[in-house]
Amino acid sequence: MTSIYDQHLDRNPANFVALSPVSFVERSAEVFGDLPAVVHGARRYSWAQVRDRSARLAAALRAQGVGRGSTVSVMLPNTPEMVEAHYAVPALNAVLNTLNTRLDAPLLAWQMAHCEASVLITDREFAATIGPALEALRSTHGRSIVVIDVDDSEYTGPGARLGTLEYETLLAAHDPLPQLEGPADEWDAIAVSYTSGTTGDPKGVVTHHRGAYLNAVCNAATWTMPQFPIYLWTLPMFHCNGWCFPWTVAMQGGTHVCLRRVDAAAILEAMRTHGVNHYCAAPIVHSLIYNAPEALRAGISQQVRGMVAGAAPPAAMIEGMARIGFDITHVYGLTEVYGPASVAVKRPAWAGETLSEQTRLNGRQGVRYVLQEGLTVRHPETLAEVPADGQTMGEIMFRGNIVMKGYLKNPAATAKAFDGGWFHTGDLAVLEPDRYAKIKDRSKDVIISGGENISSIEVEDALYRHPAVVACAVVARPDPKWGETPVAYVELKPGATVTAAELVAHCKGLLAGYKVPREIRFEEIPKTSTGKIQKFQLRERAKSSSAIE
């Protein structure tokens, strides 16, 4: 039924423009064109220059036939070219596919074939992997691709050019597009990102311009990020498009401080030299910072604010960052919700709590982002919401505009993920009385021993409280008597020593007896490039090898 408000009040170019984060770049170039936008070694670009370079890249890609529905893959570290790709590709209404720089050649070839990429922009550092990937793309998948080589002035290591086009030469050969426009329809795909780190079953997560725009805004609102932040790229931009922060920094007219390599010395030096005040990282990267020698932190006088996600952060990490004066905000999400989509909002009253209680409160997954329509904990089959009692477990589910379009070429997985009108995360959690969600475990990581459920996260948290432990992971090991028992994989801090018996005794002081690891294995723990521990590999180890004590 129509009303008077439906008559002669139509959308038109003056009152409706599709939401796209590309618009943030145009605004910052227009308003803050003279201000710094990118710092990378000796290279410096203003917002006017970044906009110009991005528009030149867009023009060059258009000349290669890139347009709506085309896919452009990129194999790049955190460099200016990666920033520019996040602006140029969406401006053509094309789809950006950021490749994980730690993947092997067959998987890279499979991903580029699956998303039907027509162009690859690649840094020569990765030639040893990309070369075989391109060959597999041709021989196994029957696809050819235009290759654009990036020869970063800050990289002096080995690696050959693989294509016929060179990035800087290509930019110089094209006039910039008059405007970075974005899509006609905000529901159009902006990126396809593959989930490959923790399940062994890659799925192409397709996200849209509307969601990227809204989540970029949410990042700033959630963090109360001021205008002109100085943001350090410790988080790989290939991971969930850098949690949408390439666009958040553009929105705020901030400065991208690029970092090719992530280690404590490089991070702290960048913070000191450039006055960095914001960064994002997985828990293990934050741990590198607070475990670094105090001398490396000397001279950092500004308030540094970090955002942590990627795994349930150990209490020891949150406490450690608080002790060195870094302000940490805990967010939670997945690739399917553009990275973080919920936050442990810090209430004013928390400041009066003990450090231990603040750590507990801040360690929760929290509440939905302000522009995400729903976050709840529900029974995975009945979809009934669990009571907010802090005890009843269910599955975290999201609903709203900051949720993917679906999985590329995988309608069955898409339908399963959206069953009942909610996106199912697979993370098991409780709702606490204040309605903050608290993850207990991934559904596949719960250990069932003698009929009792053991949260691997709870056991890991106990291990992290030992001063010698820098990284750990707990998985189930088959047991003829109990069905499953917990086994812990542990990495120690440099120079630290501790025995398996000592760690077991430490855990006994913090956990119920049945939750204490039956075995401790001092081994290197496999991780993704974002620092997430690959438990599926550890589960295989636990099934096939004996304990090392």
From TrEMBL:
Molecular functions (GO terms): ligase activity
Family annotation (Pfam families): AMP-binding (PF00501), AMP-binding_C (PF13193)
Cited Gene3D superfamilies: 3.30.300.30, N-terminal domain of ligase-like (3.40.50.12780)
UniProt entry keywords in alphabetical sequence: Fatty acid metabolism, Ligase, Lipid metabolism
GO biological process: fatty acid metabolic process
Domain AMP-binding enzyme C-terminal: 458-532
InterPro entries xrefs: AMP-bd_C, AMP-bd_C_sf, AMP-binding_CS, AMP-dep_synth/lig_dom, ANL_N_sf
SUPFAM superfamilies linked to this entry: Acetyl-CoA synthetase-like
Domain AMP-dependent synthetase/ligase: 26-408
Family in the record: Belongs to the ATP-dependent AMP-binding enzyme family.
Protein name as catalogued: Acyl-CoA synthetase
Organism: Pseudaquabacterium pictum
Higher taxonomy: Bacteria, Pseudomonadati, Pseudomonadota, Betaproteobacteria, Burkholderiales
